[in-house]
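Input:
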Amino acid sequence: MRAMRGHSADGSLVARARAGDRRAADELAVRHVRQVWRAAYAITGRPDLADDAVQDGFERAFGALDQFDLSRPFAPWITRIVVNRALSIVTRARPTEEFDEERHGAPADLPASDLEVADALGRIAPDRRVVVVMRIVIGFSPQETADALGIAVGTVHSRLHRGLADLREALEMTVS
Amino acid sequence: MSDGLENRLRDAFAPSGPSDELVAAARGRAVDAASAGARATRRRGRRRTFAVLAVAGALVGGGAAAAAVVFDRAEPTVPATAGTRAAIAESGILASAPWLFQAEGGQAIGAVPRLPSLRFPPRTTYREALDALVRSVITDGTLPDGARVARPLPPGVVWKRSRGAPRLDLTAPAGYTRPGGIIQTPSFTIPGWVSSADAVRIGKALRDGTPLGEDEALLVTVTTPRLAACQMLPRRAPCRLAPPPPAPRS
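Output:
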């Protein structure tokens, strides 16, 4: 769960990528793409939307590496950018499109119980969902989550508490 | 109850991951975006430098009217923030450079102690070396990266041409007048193709010492002085200079 740490190594890669080192940028992308995709998928509930969020988020984040504070950990920073992109995707009005199981559906190999959780998570408020994903699914600390989302640590705690309560209720409804 | 729910959440998403196609696409976008960002940062860096140089023009380009303000021992002849001033003060070389501090007007090359020279990488031109020195002093208050302090050049020599290790004199990097031998400060130029209206506005800003806008600042560049043959090595003949004025009696 804490595989995204290693801040000093990330900082070095960011510094090299800023100077135009393409290999450093690639290594940085490889390090983080799976974890941020998981966050985007947990928020959007759809692999195709997670793909969009990650690609857009990476383009924005890596194009703005000069704005990253090297004294801070990189993982919350890039996760925040991708998560914000995922949120804007799920909250904007989308044109009606025909459901395509292959494009829009959950991964075929996901057990039914996991599908229930993913479905229930998609039914709680986005601001609480994001905190639940960053704290529980990704494993950020309350402080890292607060820094990444630009909110107080106390707000992280309260949104997590309410988000888990909402999730529990949504799961009970699913089961019943 | 909560721990069970949290574990279930973790377990639900732990096995999921992006496709190989998405990973490849994301890596490609990251590399391209980082490269474009690095190029943009380098361009912005040049613009910032020019913006500072424009203020330098405001200080030293104003001629006699500005000289009374500029030639104060406490103020360098190029613009400097408090941090830059502190860095200059910490530098034994820059703190005593007669082209950077001229408390009582220009000093004669023959009347000041010789300072070390700067050795630049092979094939560096005089224009590039002077530009690097002025930019570095203005932006950081330090000597430029990539150059190394070396022994002084022979008296009167400003630039040693060399394909292997060109050297710039730190006593008078912008040269000195002949026959007076007065050490020159860096000067700045507005190119001739700038419209007359813009040139008037920029010139007024330079004289008044007011900062220029970013676009206008881009138009102002460090002037490369034309050095006399005797100020360069290998030189054909020594510079004939007037004797320095006698020191005032105490």
